[in-house]
Specification:
Length: 174
């Protein structure tokens, strides 16, 4: 359906002007933290509108998480690449889980492991905090040099609540 490109007549323009003048502006609702609201003087400007605070910006991620590694995931599932060790993060907080993961991966890398399983758990409703934080942790500066990638684990290794973490080769100095 196409729109007509005709111009409004004088009568239509006058009618539209009367309708536009009869409309009153509504004040917007403020849905933010009351402690972070601006003072009352700054809140209501000359038009009487309530001004919203600018949205809080989240800090940019430190670095890009390691890539998902589908080829190695298939090799692990087929038994061509053995899982060397596993870490279960059930019962950990974010802080203790991150530290336990760092120690575990550094030790596994030093031992020459190439694939490890990290069990985070699924969390309530499938959105576990540890599960969501894992890619960010793997991208941290202390781990990015030893982690080559990660992939969701097969159900025999923990399924949706676990991930394969692929480690780079450990080179020894002669």
């Amino acid at each position: 359906m196409s729109r007509d490109k005709r111009r409004l007549s004088e009568e239509e323009r006058a009618l539209w002007g009367a309708v536009a003048k009869s409309i009153k502006r509504r004040a917007r609702e403020v849905t933010s933290n009351p402690a972070a609201d601006p003072p009352a003087a700054a809140k209501n400007g000359p038009t009487g509108l309530v001004r919203r605070a600018p949205p809080a910006s989240s800090p940019p991620p430190l670095s890009k998480p390691p890539p998902s590694n589908r080829a190695n995931e298939k090799r692990v599932r087929r038994g061509k690449l053995a899982v060397g060790a596993s870490l279960d993060l059930h019962g950990h907080t974010q802080a203790s889980g991150r530290e336990a993961l760092r120690r575990f991966l550094q030790r596994a890398h030093a031992d020459g492991e190439r694939v490890v399983v990290v069990i985070t758990g699924v969390g309530r409703g499938g959105g576990g905090v540890l599960k969501q934080s894992l890619p960010e942790w793997l991208a941290s500066p202390e781990l990015r040099d030893i982690v080559s990638g990660f992939a969701p684990a097969h159900r025999t290794h923990g399924g949706a609540g676990a991930a394969y973490v692929f480690l780079r080769r450990a080179f020894s100095n002669p």
